[in-house]
Amino acid sequence: MIPHETLHQIPSYLSRDDIGPWGTFLQQIERVTPYLGDLAYWVESLKRPKRILVVDVPIKMDDGSVVHYEGYRVQHNTSRGPGKGGVRFHQDVTLSEVMALAAWMTIKNAAIGVPFGGAKGGVRCDPRTVSMAELERITRRYTSEIGILIGPDKDIPAPDVNTNERIMAWMMDTYSMNQGRTSTGVVTGKPISLGGSLGRHDATGRGVFVVGRAAAQKVGLAIRGARVCVQGFGNVGNAAARAFHEAGARVTAVQDVTGTVFSENGLDIERLTAWQASGRPIAEFGDAQSLEHDAFWDVPSEFLIPAALESQITARNAGRIQTRILLEGANGPTTPDGDDILNDRGVLVVPDVLANAGGVTVSYFEWVQDFSSFFWSEEEINRRLDRIMEEAFQAIWDASTREKVSLRTATYIVACKRVLEARELRGLYP
Ligand code: NAD
Fold this sequence. Notes:
Elements: H1 4-7, H2 21-32, E1 51-60, E2 66-77, E3 83-84, E4 87-90, H3 95-112, E5 118-124, H4 132-145, E6 155-156, H5 165-179, H6 200-219, E7 227-231, H7 235-246, E8 250-256, E9 259-262, H8 269-277, E10 289-291, E11 303-306, E12 325-327, H9 336-344, E13 348-350, H10 352-355, H11 358-372, H12 378-403, H13 407-426
Parallel strand pairs: 3-6, 4-5, 7-8, 7-11, 11-12, 12-13
Antiparallel strand pairs: 1-2, 2-5, 8-9, 9-10
Helix pairs in contact: 2-3, 2-13, 3-13, 4-5, 6-7, 6-11, 6-12, 11-12, 12-13
The structure holds nicotinamide-adenine-dinucleotide.
């Protein structure tokens, strides 16, 4: 339910009846505003994106027909630096969703202190239904269409749901061909041989683990033997599950779009990864029990990691969740009403804008390495990543204790102050 005071802020190009994830972001900004002091003067600048580009992506399909896909690139805020944020390929992508994802990037980048603003992109398509050649054409035409906005010092895309290293290689190549020179720094999350960074592939999941470990220390919870449930077994969910598994935790339930598996003693994550990689649905994985989709939320755990899509935890299921620490690997997995229920029930929620910031942190390292054409060892990258995540967690934990607010509100306080201070220092032009 969107509160009345939020409704009047909805821009004319979004539906008032179905404002979607952008409504969640607006409510989060409402909640932090009382803590911003004099900087609240500038808060309106967070309630609308700086730029929105909607593009037509016409593709000649393998059978000769032409299909038009809809693509988006949104730059929410560039006060602190160039736009930065992933590109999502999904049949349900909407403008509201891309706007919210771009805004969460603004908050995330400021919260961990990397010198980027927030941006995000998407194409409304189902990659499972197109051939590899069609996927390449979608990627290249979309990149070409958003070429007027992106660039290594303007806006730097990266992988998100259903996009990966291969797609980043096509994006980099398309942009470079249009520019007439090779420009590796235009995207991050590239293959290593094209200027990608060691450690980037697992960085988001690794970061989820690092902040999870820091949160566990605060509440006196041991990782060894802890039960972990993971929704989404893609880039983020898989790497997070592996990290917890390697640290001695029991990953008892995993869910992806094809099904849910459960094992009281802990799933063999390496075998489950190999099973999934061979194209078989995880629900058919041996040595585990298959569960109904919705039953996933009833599995008791010490750590619950949503790492799929947004709005998964709402007032509908938050009361049933039995966990100690909710680690948001996905962006926007919890709606504000779900968040309130979890907070009331004493679940420690480590918000997306902190928990999944490991990916953009190593994207920042990749961007720096591309600019200097000097590449670091994986050990160096992981060491720096762990330090940034641990320090950000500690600073936000301290802010949450000082202000007596949730970790989410504390993260928004730290981040919004940084963004709005930059806004104030730059001033308005003209
Ligand atoms: P991905 O495409 O690699 O994996 C997505 C996973 O979610 C898949 O396992 C898919 O089966 C599952 N899924 C999709 N719909 C589902 C449903 N209805 N129920 C259960 N599972 C479902 O994507 P990813 O890159 O791992 O991204 C996952 C989330 O993490 C997204 O919210 C994304 O924005 C966020 N994120 C990603 C990165 C990154 O570096 N890739 C960084 C920060 C945040």
